[in-house]
Amino acid sequence: MAATGLEAPVPIAGIAGDQQAATFGQTCFSPGQGKNTYGTGCFLILNTGAEAVASGNRLLTTVAWQQGTVDYALEGSIFVGGAVVQWLRDSLGIIGQAEEVEGLAASVPDNGGIYLVPAFAGLGAPHWDPHARGIIAGLTRGSTGGHLARAALEGIAYQVQDAVRAMEMDSGIPLAELRVDGGASRNDLLMQFQADILGVPVIRPRITETTALGAAYLAGLATGFWTGRDEIASQWAEDRRFEPTMRVATREALLDGWREALDRARSRRPE
Questions:
Q1: Dihedral pair phi/psi, residue 34, rounded to 5°
Q2: Burial 159-170 (b: 16+ CB within 10 A, else e)
Q3: Confidence (pTM)
Q4: CA atoms of 218 and 17, how far apart (whole Å)
Q5: Terminal CA-to-CA distance of the chain, rounded, Å?
Q6: Is 127 exposed, middle or buried, given 0-12, 13-18 or 19+ CB atoms closer than 10 A?
Q7: DSSP the chain
Q8: Closest Cα partner for 182 from 213, 220, 141, 154?
């Protein structure tokens, strides 16, 4: 196959969906390796290898890529990720630029008991509740914009945690580390909290535009520019690693609060 209408034929050597390409760009080539893209929403993929795992937890079973043999994956889509920061900026006006949310959230030591469930368009994986609605729980007279900003960022991480746990239950493979990309992955406070709430390292690569990178890798392998996946994997470079530092008891208490807030946000309509 080649593109036409150009001065010379250009071979089309690699075709992939955006999240599959990003997973390849993150060199998640082995079962149990996973990546999450933090964009307007969040998009999590876990490599399950040669086995197509049928999800019992409302995730998508998908083809990761095919190069002679087929690698499969589990995929989970979260509706509202970085969009909650846009809401803080555009609707509430407590920040002027999206980049300011990290400083505002860091102005307080914790969330002050606030949980923000950003179900502005319902809930995605693994809940799939289109009638859920966003809530802010735990407000007191002492709540500040810093607490709200922190709760908004934490709400992103909690949703990712829910999807990761569903993937682990489906696959039987515990996640050893999470590779991250997308615009919100540049938020160090969010990435540290994500590591803490997952209990595994979160790793941000030097190149976070991994969708384009993965498509280039696939085309380069098909045309012989690279010799194989090992050569590609050797090019992946870490920018920063976020190690979990939170005590287990603290993590479980926070997750209990999240689950209670999530339950309040859920729809009571029959499915």
A1: -140, 155
A2: bbbbbbebbbeb
A3: 0.92
A4: 12
A5: 45
A6: buried
A7: -EE-SSSS-EE------HHHHHHHHTT--STT-EEEEESSSEEEEEEEETS-PPPSSS-EEEEEEEESEEEEEEEEEES-STHHHHHIIIII-S-SSTTHHHHHHTTSSS-TT-EEE--BTBB-TTT-BTT---EEE---TT--HHHHHHHHHHHHHHHHHHHHHHHHHHH------EEEESGGGG-HHHHHHHHHHHTS-EEEES---HHHHHHHHHHHHHTTSS--HHHHHTT--EEEEE---S-HHHHHHHHHHHHHHHHHHS--S--
A8: 213
Q: Which residues pair with 115 in a beta bridge?
A: 137
| pLDDT tens by residue, the chain, 271 residues | 656 666 777 778 878 889 999 999 999 999 999 999 999 999 999 999 998 999 999 999 999 999 888 999 999 999 999 999 999 999 999 999 999 999 999 999 999 999 999 999 999 999 999 999 999 999 999 999 999 999 999 999 999 999 999 999 999 999 989 999 999 999 999 999 999 999 999 999 999 889 999 999 999 998 889 999 999 999 999 999 999 999 999 999 999 999 999 999 998 765 5
Q: What is the Cβ-side half-sphere exposure of residue 159, based on CA atoms within 13 angstroms?
A: 35
